[in-house]
Amino acid sequence: MYQLDDKFLDDLGLSSLPEEQKKPFLQHIYDELQLRVGERLSEGLTDEQLDEFEAIIDHKDEVVNPWIERFAPDYRQQETFQRLITELDIPADSIQAKAEYAATRWLELNRPNYRQVVSETLESLKAEIISSRDVILGAQA
Description:
Elements: H1 6-11, H2 19-42, H3 47-57, H4 61-71, H5 79-88, H6 95-110, H7 114-131, H8 133-140
Helix pairs in contact: 2-7, 4-6, 5-6
């Protein structure tokens, strides 16, 4: 996956951004990436699929629990789940843990190319940022 951090800014040639502006800038990039990826991934999905995924990412018990039981009853034994709870530092029995895992599995089942979409979208966004680097840094001066 990707890390939006100081190394990411270095790769974009933006390491000279003032410290107090780095975190908000990275948050903006994250928000924009989520928006663009969401738009691409939603193409061709039904309203029912979009509603289901939205309920999963909103951690709605009444959707997450039945979905997990149906499509991933062995989720606790999955390496992806174990890595997720470790990285997010969340309890394995929490709705957040189940929902995060369900969202990942949902994408694998309904949009198997989602990792490629994220990668392509991030590369496109990086190119835009690099082409605007002087303006971004100039605005900081």
